[in-house]
Amino acid sequence: VLGMCPALAVSNTAINALTMGAATTFVLLASGISVSLLREWIPREARIVSYICIIASFVTAVDYTIQAISLELHRSLGAFIALIVVNCLILGRAEVFASKNSPGRTVLDSLGMGLGFTAALLWIGALREILGAGSLFGMALFPGTFQTWTVMVLPSGGFFAMAVWLLLVDWLKKKGQARQNEVLEAKS
Fold first, then answer.
1. Domain extents for the chain?
2. Which of 18, 39, 100, 113 is deepest in the core (most CB within 10 A)?
3. Contact 117/18 with Cβ under 8 angstroms?
């Protein structure tokens, strides 16, 4: 959850959320592979600084790529692309997983983490765009009489949307556990 905080502010549309997720996934994957390949040559005392330099290199490449592809999208994401450098998810996976595993295992770990992060951001961005603008991926969903929730397009709306999804997931877990308990009691 902590790793999502900077991205929450900018995920006010599905496009922004998908772009942030894809950018983070690419950086996670590229930096993970690099750390895994270089793990034998990076001194233990300099590993965190080295990882941050590797991550920053890929973030810079992503930042320039987004700027070249769509200046408008780059402007809407603002400084949040640069904040990927200090995302605890990326640094944590470099330290805990990539530095101790082969590139192949690191690719699988990075893709799993990155795609999960992207899916979570996309759910949040989609909910915010639907409620805050009445659209999804920029296409109107409701008639002109739809009353939008302005708070959902503000940065604080990201935390509200995340809370809604966390409540839903918690409710589904509890419902599943209750069913499982009923089945176990019926067998007894």
1. 2-187
2. 113
3. no
